[in-house]
What does this fold into?
Amino acid sequence: MSALQDLVSDAPAVAAVPRQNIALGRLAAIVVVLLLLGAPLLLTSFIVFQITMVLIYTIAILGLNILTGGSGQFSLGHSAFYALGAYTSAILIEHFGVNYALTLPLAGVICFGFGVLFGLPALRLSGVYLALATFALATAMPQLLKLGIFETWTGGVQGLVVTKPDAPFGLPIGQDVWLYYLALGIAMAIYAFAVNLLQSRSGRALMAIRDNEIAAVAMGVDVALYKTLAFGISAGITGVAGGLSTIAVQFVAPDSYTIQLAIALFLGMVVGGVGWLPGSLVGASFIVFVPNIAEGISKGLSGAVFGVILILIIFLLPHGAQQLATLAQRHIDRLRRK
It folds into this structure.
């Protein structure tokens, strides 16, 4: 057992991309934004709703990427912060009549506080032990939401139904399209914040901790402070995603935030590329659309088909979508030289 602990402690926390490769280039970013802006004009309402959920999961995976790809801390419990943000928005909307847009920053602040509180004792843990602690958090959250003492606010097992908002200022667009653009705007803002954070002095400190914690301490980095802040910021962003999901889905219930959601978010981060922020969109698309594709191939064996697809992706692209983007960029550079 001691040999295993030495191996875990000596190994790098996570294989993530370097600081200069965490974001898309300017031209690629413009193309992606234009495609996303024009998507509702060409797609059906159901597809627009699905892409809205992709954007919401993108925000949650961005938060997880800051924690794992930025500071190297593993978490299998972000579904708990997602649920906390979702219930915060639902309770504020239905019980206090707060405007749905105002509930999102409040959900982020509350989840930030809980993330910091969880991050403080988590400082004593690392590697697989931190993953197990966050796993326990994700497992406990649905049960806590069902407790009778919270039932007046949470609705207990039955959950809460939330009213779907109309577009403001009398804009001539449907509810689904408005929520899509709301999610897109928030996702773009959080993406810009995450890029600037990881490219800042604080981001360099986080990555120093990720790459070599002992060296980071020797360079004067306050490891405890940055690890705790990383947990708080990550939880806050995930809480905003949870609040958005409440508004889009119009319903919250404890069984919607089980450990399967936490694993899905972690899977989306890995498929997109740990530490590569644009990969959050790819990973979110994977966890929304690929299960449907697998079910379309075989309803009876959809889980097996999904597993085969995942194994193929891990085998062919062990570094996720970031590896594919790097190969494409190299090919484009060769064509330019010719």
About this structure: The first helix runs from residue 2 to 10. DSSP finds 15 helices and two strands in the chain.
